[in-house]
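Schema walk-through. Below, the input block comes first and the output block second. Nothing else is stored per chain. Lengths vary across the set, and this one has 460 residues.
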Amino acid sequence: MIVERRQWQHVGERMHAGELALVGLWGEPGCAHLAVMDRHSYGLMVLSLPGERFPSIGRLHPPAIRLERTMRDLYGLEAEGAPDVRPWLKHGEPYAFLPAEGESLHQIPVGPVHAGIIEPGHFRFSANGETVVRLEERLGYTHKGTEALLAGASLERAARLAGRVSGDSTVAYALAFAQAVEKALGCEIPARAIWLRALAAELERLANHFGDIGAVCNDASFTIMHAHCGWLREQVLRTAAQLFGHRLMMDCVVPGGLRADLPRQASEAIAALITLIRTRFPDLVELYDETESLKDRTVDTGVLTAALAEQYAAGGYVGRASGRTFDARRTPGYPPYDRLEFDVPTVHAGDVNARVWIRIREVGQSVALVEQIMAGLPSGAVASALPAGAGEATALVEGFRGDIFAWVRMGADARVERAHLRDPSWFQWPLLEAVIEGNIVADFPLCNKSFNCSYSGHDL
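--- output ---
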């Protein structure tokens, strides 16, 4: 919807008042776009404001600040009245970290190169002894020009790019992109493809949750949990490779459906995996729950308040561990989840322990969903031909980190004119800065891993 400045400003004021949640804020040459969701009806609205300048949303609603900085770096769009005009992606320019004042403060720079095999990011700690007074992140090192590559790309190439925004969420990203394209072109896909997409998404969720649970424990030096959870993750990845031909299930979900159907031995492979998880995982949960030295590190560490989780519309386990019940599979919702029974686990403690327990409970929900999907899996084709035409549409999909937003504008030549993909990490990285304040430096790895934000998905 094309709007005027006063309408754009009014939406910002409604976000400030808590009526609307920010879903996405992005640009293209000569135009700014804003996606918001009603916090009560979950209705999604996209506004477009032509021009090189727009009233700052970040001035009224802090979750928009980093997005506005990115729009300036990528497209030269100026947010009038923006509270922070520092470059975000341009690392060749001088960068002024926010100050922290007080006696006996010192700074600890970490990254962008890290000791582990992880993506690059710089973390600047201001600390009093071991107590963190301020943490500021500087990201953007994995910026790869995704939106520029998507502009004008063929549908096949664009789908491959979408699935590589953040490799650990390749199914969720491919699904969000495919749903947006299908809505834009008015394409209905076969029922079997819809259910198989959900199967792939739940396997992706299981693999990542197992990996995260173990990694959090590893950062507290409880390596036995890391080893056993890593082994369970490996079993999920091997099953995914059997079913979809790729351990991460990359390029399996495509606009129009799925690239290929399941092999004949799929039911047996899934049954074996479910049995394995139900046999092994409860013992690991009990081990976590009964190890007091481990919980001494995770309980009351890195507390995210419910107010901040709500303000930033934090998705996934980050939001649900602080009382936010949102799950895109349910609200606004998309098939086949409207025909499946599942709970959205929620707790209110908001600490590292709570974020671990949300993952634990979601493992149980995903196992039950996989069983329901296999029991109700329709027969038939797994792909439909895409009709010709132009159009614009959005999609919101629940990845393992939270909701992934996709906006696509298709041209009549079956090419993508413009596209934008927003990772849940955009609204989680700033919260990591908040939760570490007042904690000791040694607890940062625990807090960081309990969030497990994506660098690549955030940097586009």
